[in-house]
Amino acid sequence: MSLIELLVALAIGAVLVLGLVQVFGASRAAYQMSEGMARVQENARFAMDFLQRDIRMAGHFGCVNDQAHYVQDVNEPIDRTDSHDALDFRFTIQGFEALDTAPGDSVTIGDATTGWGGAAPFADILLLTPAPVAGSDVIVLRYFNPRGTPVTEVGTTPTTLTIPPIFPAGTPSPAPPDGWPNLTDDGVANPTLFGIADCSQADVFPATGVAGGTLTTTDTIITDLQARYNPHPAGQTRLYRANSIVYYVGLSASSGEPTLFRARAGSDGVYANEELVEGVESLQLLYGRDETSNISPSSPPVGNIALLDTAQGVGASVDEWRRVGLVQVGMLVRSPNPAVAPQAASDGANPRVLGVEFEPAAANDTRYRATYEATIAVRNRLFGN
User: Fold this and answer.
1) From CA 332, how far away is CA 139, in angstroms rounded?
2) 3-state SS of the chain?
């Protein structure tokens, strides 16, 4: 074999190897992009499913929603544990707007200015670990659990109220079965915050002990429940778990990834945090209000949504938040790992969520990003429909 033949063979081999490397690189990039897209879609569906379920339940107080309670009796004390803002059940929907994230604003990914466009979240939220990240809104939802259990006896002493949450022995139980399991679903094995309601009134109270199917509280504020509620079967009184839930975006302590968190308040107003789904970089929210400008016993809501605004536009008044019957949810979601995604070629290609533009950072992190939006009717606020 001559030197020339050897050089030709080496050249041909180098071309073939280079082609194989290029094919392998393209296949690897396609796989990373495909995996990134799949993870983003999976995480977004999971997050949106949780948000939709809880937003629809906001304002549920047994067989009548919070608007109906208010219209029936403007002085009805739905919330009786107002020592913590987290337990203020006058606000069954309550939002907080991140600074400069209204429709028409522009935010640089990973470089948003910390602050709030309007009222800042109350102290119980700001104490959450991890804390809410900049450039992402916060929403608080309060409601009674979908399934309650009949109250068969309301007994009271000067400081103790006892409510058996099960039927007496031998009494047929309707399907699905009633009892303590109705109050401990969704991963809440030991609830401490409860609601009691019939079709005309509702109250929230903390519980200090559960034994033998009997719920006991030492909350002296609610010692008049015996006079207010008629036990089952003569009355329609049922016991529920009361939920006060916060959705927000924070940085995961384990991975450092932006993550959608769901935090649930106990009777002490302290939130127990739950890491829901990773990759959610920003949560954007808009609120639709009933066209009735002043809900009252003489002016009930009609169920028509006439205004759509940010939390800052709704304001801090409980009367304005009581008008909210629709929530638009938008999320910017990124892949957990680099996915060789190219930088946006122009401003027109930047992702947008509910009118907010997200500009790419100076250095491309190659993460795949997608936006998701949903319009959610608050089921318990469709008063006139």
Assistant:
1) 16
2) CCHHHHHHHHHHHHHHHHHHHHHHHHHHHHHHHHHHHHHHHHHHHHHHHHHHHHHHHCCEECCEEHHHHHHHCCCCCCCCCCCCHHHCCCCCEEEECECCCCCCCEEECCCCCCCECCCCCCHHHHCCCCCCCCCCCEEEEEEECCCCEECCCCEECCCCEEECCCCCCCCCCCCCCCCHHHHCCCCCCCCCEEEEECCCCEEEEECCEEECCEEEECCHHHCCHHHHCCCCCCCCCEEEEEEEEEEEEEECCCCCCEEEEEEEECCCCCEEEEEEEECEEEEEEEEEEECCCCCECCECCCCCEEEEECHHHHCCCHHHHCCEEEEEEEEEEECCCCCCCCCCCCHHHCCEECCEEEECCCCCCCCCEEEEEEEEECHHHCCCC
- The confidence score (pLDDT) of residue 211 equals 65
d(CA 228, CA 250): 42
The alpha carbon of residue 77 and the mean position of all alpha carbons in its chain are separated, in whole angstroms, by 25
Q: How far apart are CA 142 and CA 133, in angstroms?
A: 22
User: Which residue in 325, 319, 358, 360 sits closest to 342, CA to CA?
Assistant: 360
Cα–Cα–Cα angle for 300, 301, 303, nearest 5°? Answer: 150
Identity (one letter) of the amino acid at 342? P
Q: If you search the block for the tokens 């409601």, which residue do you land on?
A: 143
pLDDT tens digits along 73-122: 655 556 555 667 898 998 999 999 999 999 999 999 887 777 999 889 99
The tokens for 311 are: 């939390």
With CA atoms as reference, report the closest residue to 144 among 54, 261, 232, 47.
54
Q: Report the C-alpha dihedral over residues 15, 19, 21, 22, rounded to 10 degrees.
A: 130
Q: Decide the pairing of beta strands 356-359 and 106-108.
A: parallel
Segment 229-235 mean pLDDT? 74
What's the pTM? 0.88
Query: What is each CA distance from 368 to 32, 205, 309, in whole angstroms?
Result: 9, 46, 29
Distance CA 31, CA 22 (A): 14
- For 120, phi then psi, to 5°, come to -75, 155
